[in-house]
């Protein structure tokens, strides 16, 4: 058994966005982050921020270490 971890932890704090192009009157904005297309993280939906949404969401992603 290895004494080293088999993964690294990546911590993301997705804070906000500014001046998004309006795609509808009532925008329901969220952010998506990923390192690999199979492992995506999403924020909660901001229903009230419009073109300047705020999430301030902390997310953790475990990244496998390749030998």
Automatic annotation (TrEMBL):
Alphabetical list of Pfam families matching this protein: C2
Signal peptide range: none
Domain of life of the organism encoding this protein: Eukaryota
C2 domain: residues covered: 9-58
SUPFAM superfamilies per record: C2 domain (Calcium/lipid-binding domain, CaLB)
Protein name: BnaA05g10250D protein
Species this protein is from: Brassica napus (Rape)
């Amino acid at each position: 058994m290895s004494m080293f971890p088999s993964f690294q932890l990546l911590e993301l704090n997705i804070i906000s966005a500014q001046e998004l192009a309006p795609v509808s009157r009532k925008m329901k904005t969220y952010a998506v982050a990923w390192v690999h297309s199979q492992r995506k993280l999403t924020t909660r939906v901001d229903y009230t921020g419009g073109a300047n949404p705020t999430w301030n969401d902390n997310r953790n992603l475990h990244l496998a270490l390749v030998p």
